[in-house]
Amino acid sequence: MARRAGRLPAPPGPFLPEFWRSPIRGPWLTSVFGLVLLIGIPLLFVTGLLSYASYNPGLSPFNDETPDKGVLGFYLFSWPTHPYWLYRLLQGVHVTLGVVLVPVVLAKLWSVIPKLFEWLPVRSVAHGLERLSLLMLVGGVIFEFVTGILNIQLYYVFPGSFYRLHFYGAWVFLAAFVVHVSLRLGRMTRALRSRSLGAELRTGLAHTLPEPPDPDGLVPAAPAAPTMTRRGALGMVGAGSLLLLVVTAGQSIGGRLRATALLAPHNRNPGSGPNAFQINKTAAAVGVTPQLVGTDWRLEIHGRGPGLVLTREQLLAMLQHTAALPIACVEGWSTEDQHWSGLRLADLAALAGMPDAGSVLVESVQPPGPFTRVVLRGNQIRDPRSLLALRVNGADLSLDHGYPARVIVPANPGVNNTKWVGRLTFRA
Asked: How far apart, in whole angstroms, are the C-alpha atoms of residue 308 and residue 305?
């Protein structure tokens, strides 16, 4: 049956070798794009794993939106609070690099597209396994980049939780990436050595010729006349990546560059004045009404012994501390350092009779939903900059920024700096 299938003619269109005619397509150009991705994608994966670890997923299911993860959910260390800008840096690199690599991914897919229409699709068991890894690789990279970019724009059209889909998709893609690199690293190395990058950058259109025929069929069987040099293709991809860097990085770097962050979510700066810094969701959007945080609001503190119930006025009457900390979110945006004031979590732990608490469950008065509760580690409680913040930049918190009280912790993902706090439960 295999022999008979092998004699079947290829369908018309992209399955015919003559369909693909670009004279610059070949192993060398594919390998140049591949080399960039060989450096960029592992860095993306590592920063993504570190972002996962920053949620302290082993503490509580409240911290982790990826249940039933098994061995895929390992993490190697408790998330630190020093340096305080750690999460801002890592997530900024993760998101910005992901956006910047989009032109390279598209160029790489363009360079190998004849392989996707190879005839026959499966010739043997080994060939079938290679094709399956290629399908997982292409599908995985498209899935991860598309879901990541949609998440940056806070555009949730996923059939489920973004965190769960992106998490499992990353592991599927990594498995295919490792298999693909293992199979192709030798060929990529030989292809890169076959031509000089400097010589290609000096080659004009009149001297742009196809590469010698290759066993993978990337070089066209009937090449057309060149309309672009390899230098032009590399320059176009590089310019696209540079443009995306310019319109993305500012949301993480801040300062004057924030004005260039055209791809950052817009209309997220509530009002003006001391509270005029970015948020993801307003109080109204998550169902926090003035009634929930009005004069009847109380903070419950539980630990060893009877619980405490305190009004905001009582909290303001206690010794206040300050900390200059940013808010950094998984979408890649972050604020400059804001000046927070309130009560140290360590002091509240002592007040609850647990000065050496190993964790604290922070609960919001926000209606039930994702990330309305979070568990913080003992090292986060004891950091003197970790606060139950009551004021920011010299003014009361606005409702959108968590009035009457919110948590702010160094190097903590923004979503875990819970707003509208109603209860703190300290645990051993």
From this structure: 9
pLDDT for residue 266 is more than 70: no
How many Cβ atoms from other residues are within 10 Å of residue 58's Cβ?
A: 14
State the Cα–Cα distance between residues 107 and 98, nearest whole angstrom.
15
Record the tokens describing residue 140, joined without a space. Answer: 């995985």
Q: What is the CA radius of gyration of the chain?
A: 27
pLDDT tier at 120, thresholds 50, 70, 90: confident
Asked if 287 and 409 touch (Cβ cutoff 8 Å), the reply is: no
Distance CA 206, CA 4 (A): 44
Instruction: Show Cβ contacts of residue 386 under 8 Å, excluding neighbours closer than 6 positions.
Output: 81, 323, 344, 345, 346, 376, 380, 407, 408, 409, 410
Residue where the block lists tokens 């400097």:
198
**Alpha-carbon gap, residue 187 to 171, rounded angstroms:** 25
Distance CA 349, CA 383 (A): 12
d(CA 252, CA 226): 41
pLDDT per position as a tens digit, 382-399: 999 999 999 999 999 999
Residue bearing tokens 């998490």: 167
CA atoms within 13 A on the CB side of 55: 23
Give DSSP secondary structure letters for 74-94. ---SPPP--STTHHHHHHHHH
User: What percentage of the chain carries pLDDT values higher than 70?
Assistant: 97
Q: Structure tokens of 230?
A: 């390899």
Residue 5: burial class (beta carbons within 10 Å; 0-12, 13-18, 19+): exposed
DSSP state of 334: B
- Helices and strands: H and E segment counts in the chain: 12, 10
Instruction: Please state, in angstroms and rounded to a whole number, the distance separating the CA atoms of residues 325 and 196.
Output: 48
pLDDT in tens, 54-102: 999 988 889 987 878 888 887 778 899 999 999 999 999 999 999 999 9
Which residue type occupies 3? Answer: R
Amino acid sitting at position 352:
A
Cα distances from 411 to residues 343, 356, 387, 415, 416, in angstroms, run 18, 21, 13, 12, 10
Kind of pairing between the strands at 421-427 and 299-302:
parallel
